[in-house]
Design brief:
alpha+beta, four-stranded mixed sheet, 16% strand, globular
Length: 112
Amino acid sequence: MGLFDRMRPGKVRAAASARGERNEAAKQARAHLDEFIRTRVGVEAYVEPATAVLPPTVLLIASSGEWTRRRVPPGADVRDLGVPVYDVRLVGYPRRMREWNDQVKRGGPQAG
């Protein structure tokens, strides 16, 4: 790879395309989170830290225990969702989420 290989037009287009795909994925994730909040009662956000293999994620949990998880795009502020936000490392996962998961395993309500 030469010094100026990064500046080739094809490489620039590929980088712009990848950036556009990331932006679209972030928009879709935000739309999903907004829809979850709009259609459920008592939603709270739990921020999960990045790991060696995964970026940070936000877990939305409704008062029923139903939950959804999405990646947090770089630079995004979870507080913009308009729901209470907790750090899962400090408070842990709520019992209602575990109860919901148990119901789903027994064939009850389906998680989103």
